[in-house]
Amino acid sequence: MLIKEIFLSLVGLAAGFAVSAGTFAFMIVIGVIPRMIGKCNRAAETIHFENAIILGGILGNIVSVFLNIKLPFGPLFLCAYGLSAGIFVGCIAVALAEILNTFPIMFRRMGLKEGLSYVMVVMALGKMLGSLYFFLHRLAV
C-alpha cells in the first residue's frame, strides 16, 4: 500500500512538472513574458519577472490543491473572478491562434478583407454564449 502511494505521488509530481513546464514554455513562445518585460522597460530585471511568474504558478497550485479556502466576498467577487479568468483564457487562446497564423489563413480562404473586427467579436460572443449555456444548463461533469 505504501509503495502504491509513493508511486502515485511520484507520477503526480512528474505530471505536474511536465504540465507546468509546457505552460510556461507556451507563455514564453507566444511572447507574453518578453512583451511584458519590454513594456516595463526593465530588461535588467528579467529574472525577477520570470521568478514572480513561476512562484505565482506554484503558490496558486498549492492554494488550490491543499487549502480549503472559503472566500466571504459573495457572488459579485465570483463574477469578477470568472470574468477575469475567462478573459485570460481567451487571450491565451487567441494568442496561440495568432502565433499559428490561424486567423489570417482562415480570413484569406474565406475572402474576407473588410469587417475582420466584427468576425472576431462574433467569435468571442459565440464562445461566451456557449460557455454560459454549458454552465447554466449544468452540463459540467
Written overview of the protein:
The protein has 141 residues and is mainly α. The protein has 6 helices and no strands. The protein is 81% helix and 0% strand. The protein is extended and about 60 Å long. The model has no long low-confidence stretch (mean pLDDT 78).
Quick summary of this structure?
The chain is mainly α and 141 residues long. 81% of the residues lie in helices and 0% in strands. The longest helix is centred in the N-terminal third of the chain and has 28 residues.
> How many helical elements?
6
Helix-residue proportion: over 70%
Biggest beta-sheet profile? none
Strand element count: 0
Order of secondary-structure elements: HHHHHH
Based on secondary structure, the structural category is mainly alpha
Low-pLDDT runs of 5+ residues are none
Measured distance between first and last alpha carbons? 30 Å
Rounded to the nearest angstrom, the radius of gyration is 20 Å
Mean pLDDT: 78
Proportion of beta-strand residues: under 5%
Basic shape: extended
